[in-house]
Amino acid sequence: MTFNIRFDGIERDPNNHITKRVCHLTETIEKWQPSILCVQEPFASQLVHWRSHLPPYYQCIGYQPDGID
């Protein structure tokens, strides 16, 4: 399962901000229980926030273009 995480900034609709959507995303994960969960272009703060809502068996594995994982 994959998600494109939106920009972590001011939204026209405040209800569309990641901090408001994370519960819906987490419910989707809990419902479908994917073996692999991918996110595209997240900021570190978004991952930290979302990670706190996910079950502990999900682990973060990352790649950054500068070679730092």
Q: Could you explain how this protein is built, in words?
A:
The protein is 33% helix and 9% strand. It has one domain (2-51). Strand 1, helix 1 (18-32) and strand 2 (38-40) form a beta-alpha-beta unit. A two-stranded parallel ribbon has the order 1-2. It is globular, with a radius of gyration of 12 Å. The protein has two helices and two strands. It starts with a strand and ends in an 18-residue tail after the last helix. The longest helix is centred in the middle third of the chain and has 15 residues, at 18-32. The model has no long low-confidence stretch (mean pLDDT 81). With 69 residues, the protein is of the alpha+beta class.
Secondary-structure-derived class: alpha+beta
Strand tally is 2
Shape: globular
Strand order of the largest sheet: 1-2
Largest sheet: 2 strands, parallel
Estimate what percentage of residues fall within beta strands: 5-15%
Parts with pLDDT < 50 across at least 5 consecutive residues = none
Output mean pLDDT. 81
Q: Give the total of domains.
A: 1
Order of helices and strands: EHEH
Distance between the termini: 21 Å
Helix content: 25-40%
If you compute it from the alpha carbons, what radius of gyration comes out, rounded to the nearest whole angstrom? Answer: 12 Å
Total helix count? 2
